[in-house]
């Protein structure tokens, strides 16, 4: 997987949520985490999606744009963070989801 060097401009923030499964060698999450870190992204497990809005300003300051990636259950966390950012008028330049999974049949609506 190749992530563009700077898809959202000079003051962008890249956040990746991996899936809920194992993140050790040989697993999909491991490959995703390694690729994201090489691309300069901050990587989190999907459960961190509930806490990240509280810590976002410490993590990224006030970026011009944010690029979000979510795999599996991390997809729901990426959408949740995108909604939070949209309410605060932070531009989400990229929302990339692969096989997003929700819990308890929750609808994953993309309208921000």
Fold and architecture overview:
The chain has three helices and four strands. Helix content is 31%, strand content 21%. It has helices at 28-38, 52-60, 73-87; strands spanning 12-17, 42-44, 65-71, 91-98. With 112 residues, it is α/β, with parallel strands linked by helices.
Structure summary:
The chain is an alpha/beta fold and 112 residues long. It has three helices and four strands.
The rough form would be described as globular
Quaternary state of this entry equals: single chain
Based on helices, strands and strand pairing, what is the structural class? alpha/beta
The portion of residues assigned to helices is 25-40%
| Count, helices | 3
What percentage of the residues does DSSP assign to strands (E)? Answer: 15-25%
| Largest sheet properties | 4 strands, parallel
Low-confidence stretches: 1-10
Key attributes of the depicted protein:
112 residues, alpha/beta, globular
Write the layout of secondary structure elements.
Elements lengths: L11 E6 L10 H11 L3 E3 L7 H9 L4 E7 L1 H15 L3 E8 L14
Parallel strand pairs: 1-2, 1-3, 3-4
